[in-house]
Amino acid sequence: MGIILAMNKPLEALLSRLSYGSRESLGIDKGTNGFVETLARGYEKARNAIEYRADNLVRRAAIERILKRTFVLSRDPKFLSENLLKELKWAKYLSIEETKRAQDANLEEVLSEYTSFLSGTVPQEWVVKIASAHIDELIDLNTDYKEFTLFAFQVLKQKIKLNDENLDLLIYFAVDKIYSGSDDEKIAYHLLKLAGKSVTPEIFAEAWKLFNLAKNHKGLSRITKFVRRQMPPLVLFRDIYFYDPESFKESLVDEEVFMSKAKEVLEVQLHQTSDKIKTAGSRSVLYVFLTKMILAFGLEVPFELLVFKDLRVLSLVINLVFPPLFMWIMVSQMRLPGKREEEALVERTWYILKNFDDLENEEDVLVEESEEKNLGFLYWVFSTLYIVFFVGVFAAIFFVLGKIGYTLFSKLIFIFFLTIIAFFAYRVSQISKLYSWKGVSRERTSSISVLALPILTIGSYLSMGLAKLNFLAFVFDFLLEAPFKLILGFVDDWVKFIAVKKESQVID
Predict the structure, then answer these.
(1) Residues 114-166 pLDDT 10s
(2) Which residue would you say has higher pLDDT here, 93 or 483?
(3) N or C end of the chain, less CB within 10 A?
């Protein structure tokens, strides 16, 4: 039987763009660990522990931090590029191969382009953020990963039938965020990249407007939810490629060969996913614990003593112990797909490749919410009932806490961490659902998810605000990092000086 690529053009185009392992070396050598490198890497691990960030976004965030700090000292592209490369190598964010790639890419020229955008309409902070995304991808050896994003976009475009002039933009935004795991900074850069290689200040500003248009669009959340539900087969398809790029085409020869390879890859990925859940859970527990300890001893205890002249020990102990314990319980309850779901996922992945043109005719295609429009007066009745339910959930929690002996302030602290933890747990749970395929039937809402919705909603808003007001991140970035990196620079120069002196004074 012939290779399946002849069956649809998007897949054929994808296969023509892939390198099959010839362009990148993923078994990269990070080099040796010297004294400076050990200190820098230790600092980065501590810094990354205080933020909830996916592994594929850590280096981009580090580049952004370095550029922000260095911009205060100078905006000379040569100085910026040399310092950036030095600090990335210190912290072991670059392998030997990636260092060579960065040098060949001429970071000075790239940074020169972005510094020219600082006087435009795009906020300076976002110029730095987009520059960090550009540089991160410029030095990334894995050039094949983003090739799958376009294919996923073409698959989802078949299944989303909404009347919106910006539909393609919204679908691309959602696919890039969910499928590729991009953060806002990377998405903004990818939208800019769609404009081509030559970017003028006007094009840069226009790409920025498109990013904000998509991010703030009222229909994005619905599209994102739909995209998330459709992702597992596309994720498995991408995993099959990276499991063994050289034999990827051979795995598409016929159904039996593909099924065998897909099951093999899925077993490996589920094992790795289990480890990712544990890691993400541990980071979340640590983050919640550190934040709670600072808030408890910095605000809660002084407030109780100052206002009530007494320390409510029970509420304080519960507020200290509950957040990390609840987070740990939530993570420990997460389960990976069973055998039946695994079989369904493998079959679905093959179906997408074989029946690409029939996807638009499936029953779960996303269309306009005609039911909502036809409800008329009932829609406003249901909206009012939902508001009452929303308020009622938190009123019930306040009532129970009051019976235990909580003050108003300690109640607010409890609610704050309950909503934050619920949202963190939800984000970690998305990792466990990465390979969970429920079929094309309409998703049903459980009673538990209905009860959790108000808590998750508040948690999502609070987490966004908390990320901006993260006290620990402020301490690291503005009070510790600048002097620490200056000391590292001095130590690095000293080590080099000693090495030179040693070479010149060795007696034969």
Answers:
(1) 999 988 899 999 999 999 999 999 998 888 998 999 999 999 999 999 999 99
(2) 93
(3) C
What was the pLDDT predicted at 1?
43
Spatial distance between the Cα atoms of 107 and 115, rounded to a whole number of angstroms = 12
Contact by Cβ (8 Å): 276, 342: no
The single-letter code of the amino acid at 207 is A
| Residue 399, number of CB atoms within 10 A of its CB | 10
- Residue 240 contacts residue 350 (beta carbons within 8 Å): no
This prediction's pTM:
0.80
C-beta neighbour count of 131 within 10 angstroms: 26
Angle between helices 35-49 and 55-73 (to 10 degrees): 110
Helices then strands, counting H and E runs in the chain, come out as: 23, 2
Please report the pLDDT score of residue 220 as a whole number: 95
Phi, psi of 69 (to 5 degrees): -70, -40
- Residue type at 451? L
Structure confidence by residue, pLDDT tens digits, 390-400? 888 889 988 88
Best CA proximity match to 434, nearest among 153, 259, 237, 258: 237
Average pLDDT over residues 313-333: 75
DSSP of 294-357: HHIIIIIHHHHHHHHSS--HHHHHHHHHHHHHHHHHHHHT-----HHHHHHHHHHHHHHHH-GG
Q: How far apart are CA 62 and CA 132, in angstroms?
A: 8
Helix (H, G, I), strand (E, B) or coil at 50: coil
DSSP-assigned letters across all residues of 370-409 = HHHHHHTHHHHHHHHHHHHHHHHHHHHHHHHHHHHT--HH
Q: Which residues does 10 contact at the CB level (< 8 Å), separation at least 6?
A: 150, 151, 154, 155, 356
H, E, C per residue of 268-302:
HHHHHHHHHHHHHHHHHHHHHHHHHHHHHHHHHHH
Which whole-number Å values give the CA distances from 217 to 78, 164, 167, 213, 350, in the listed order? 39, 11, 10, 6, 33
What gap in Å lies between CA 135 and CA 125, rounded to an integer?
16
Alpha helices in 50-183 (DSSP H): 55-73, 77-90, 96-105, 107-115, 124-138, 147-159, 167-178
